[in-house]
Amino acid sequence: TMNFKEVIGVGGYSTVYLAKFPNKALGAVKVYNGSQRLHQVFKNELEINQKFDHPNIVKLTGYCDEREEGVLVFEYIPKGNLQEHLHNSKSVTLTWKQRISIAYQVAHALSYLHEGTNALQIVHGDIKASNIILDEHLEPRLCDFGLAKEGFSSMVKPPSSSRGIPMVGSPG
């Protein structure tokens, strides 16, 4: 982590640092430290990230689970997040073709999470432009699964009864 010098992200529950490994590879090291509740968020994100493999979801490459601190190690995605590309004048402006491609790939990743494999269904819980990171080819990866939940709740998946009009969109 180069002594935790280079912060590449800060969230409500953790800080993400750039790491350079002995083999010259780069990684993103997400550090949770503090309360028992934060440790539970770490455990949840670790458990969820170990259950899938998809080209548009950031890959977990390692972790460390200590009593007071949890650390997740992810592949490093170099081009920052979608929020920066959409709203920062210093970033490369995305063409409409690139934007449509990113939206399509994110939708594909969400479909994978929701429909899953082996009956696994995951609700990300925090989809936003800053949780979509872009690689050197501007291919998106979903990240930050700290609020993710396994399985659909009745609030997310409409009941299968034939009475009434089925819900469309999100509750609230």
TrEMBL record:
Its EC number is 2.7.11.30. Keywords: ATP-binding, Kinase, Nucleotide-binding, Receptor, Transferase. It is an enzyme of class 2 (transferase). GO terms for cellular component: plasma membrane. GO terms for molecular function: ATP binding; transmembrane receptor protein serine/threonine kinase activity. InterPro entries: Kinase-like_dom_sf, Prot_kinase_dom, Ser/Thr_kinase_AS. Residues 2-172 form the Protein kinase domain. This is Receptor protein serine/threonine kinase.
